[in-house]
Amino acid sequence: MDLNVIIDNMAYLFGGLALTFQIAALAIGFGLCWGILLGMGRLSKNRLIYYPSSAYVHFFRGIPLILVIFWIYFLLPLIIGDSLGEFVAVVVSFTLYEASYFAEIIRSGIQSVPAGQVNAGLATGLRPHQLAFHVILPQALRNMVPSLVNHAVVIFQDTSLAYVIGLREFLRRVNLVDAREARSVELYLFAGLVYFIICSLGTLASHKLERRPRTCGSNL
Amino acid sequence: MIEISNVSLWYETYKALDGISVSIARGQTMVICGPSGSGKSTLLRCINGLERFQQGSILVNGIGVQDKRTDIYSLRSRIGMVFQHFELYPHKTILENVVLAPVKVRGVPRKEAERQGLELLNRVGVLDQAGKYPAELSGGQQQRVSIARALAMEPSVMLFDEPTSALDPEMIKEVLDVMADLAREGMTMVVVSHEMGFARRVADDILFMDHGRIVEKNAAEDFFLHPSNERTKQFLGRIMDYNVNVGG
Predict the structure, then answer these.
(1) Rama region for B163: left / alpha / beta (φ>0; ψ in -120 to 50; rest)
(2) Taking the complete model, does pTM exceed 0.95, yes or no?
(3) Which of A35, A139, B75, B222 sits between 20 and 30 A of B152, alpha carbons compared?
(4) Which of B16, B4, B125 is closest to B66 using CA atoms?
(5) In terms of DSSP bridges, do strands B29-33 and B205-210 run parallel, antiparallel, or are they unpaired?
């Protein structure tokens, strides 16, 4: 064991980690926004909205993420005639793909609010948007938060896939340092430790949110 | 006040309401009873437009519930409704439950709405629970809060959908007492309930429904003493066996 290989390359490796965080943050941010729209589309009574959003969600949930990255990075330039660059390609791929997972979390969260709550709100004269903002969404969000945090952790882990198109995020840089210094054991154990600590923090947060004392119990 | 004429409602091919006609005058209390599946809750939900019927018409204060020109949201804001399972908002405190609609729908300033809300909570006897969440209250307390929530909109009609059937026996009285007070104060009320003691003492009229039809409509006293229909007699016989306190 020679930990100097890690200390000597710390700045370079953590530069990659910063990039990893950037990808994860953008993927979660954009994916969530797009996912909210898709999730609401999946609940729409309008067929022109329901069917396309459902098809989208089923499609992306049915293929591996790495394939989407290849499509966006290798095939999309053939259509639009210009390369997107690794970083943009990865962010676009993640957004398109992860939105389909967020959409399902949001759809089921909204559907978890009992119909009786809708009737109660309507009966007092609330209009649909008031019902959504004051009655449905606050309860739905409470139910969704653990799953959303959980999925954010998954996305963080999946950023390592950006490695396949040569983006120098954390894992790629670990790989490059190893190619130069031939210290596989130290480097890959270190990489595991870094991912483990960061994801554990996320999981911990998700459990905290789940165990938060609930003021909203069954109202039977 | 409420004019229901020839209302029919189908779920697919099943006829849940079959040509219902009845009217409720201002200040009157009408209790609707009947076996489960007889259409009584469905009829109630038609009055405030939570359910759509395919035939007939319902007028509330002269306004057609399903009239194309009717703003159903604004009409609903003057029709209070109380549900079997209370349906308080679990993420809001008791006071917030009561003030939400007055502030958002009627545009009452929050301070004023809270003052009125506390007054209403006091009236139904749960003032000391104002800061708690619904899950911290007993069923009877929750149901009284839900009555206060409906009253906060200053409704001209109150609809009650089996308000005591999800309650423990010892909590039923506290809810019925609040309802009886309301009726005495001149509120127009339509109550779906099997509380025959309440019906006899508080209701002006009793409507007995079966298979989506009105079997019998009578003044409360006559309904119990001289039921005219065989089906009513049979129903009363069944539910009265253990309901010894009727009229008490």
Answers:
(1) alpha
(2) no
(3) A139
(4) B4
(5) parallel
CA–CA distance, B232 with B228 (Å, rounded to integer): 7
Write out chain B residues lying below 8 Å of A215, CB-based: 90-91, 133, 135-136
Domains of chain A and CATH, by start: 4-219 (1.10.3720.10)
Report residue B41 as tokens.
């809750």
Q: What angle do CA B100, B102, B103 make, to 5 degrees?
A: 65
Judging contacts by C-beta atoms under 8 Å, the chain A residues touching residue B47 are: none
To the nearest whole Å, the CA of B89 is away from the closest chain A CA by: 7
Instruction: Please judge whether B83 and A220 are an interchain contact, meaning their C-beta atoms are less than 8 angstroms apart.
Output: no
pLDDT per residue as tens, chain A (220 positions): 788 888 888 999 999 999 999 999 999 999 999 999 999 999 988 999 999 999 999 999 999 999 999 999 999 989 888 888 899 999 999 999 999 999 999 999 999 999 999 999 999 999 999 999 999 989 998 889 889 999 999 999 999 999 888 899 999 999 999 999 888 999 999 999 999 999 999 888 888 877 664 554 443 3
CB B91 to CB A126 under 8 A? no
Residue labelled with tokens 């004023």? B112
CB within 8 Å of chain A, chain B residues 33-62:
45, 48, 50
Residue whose token pair is 């109630």:
B44
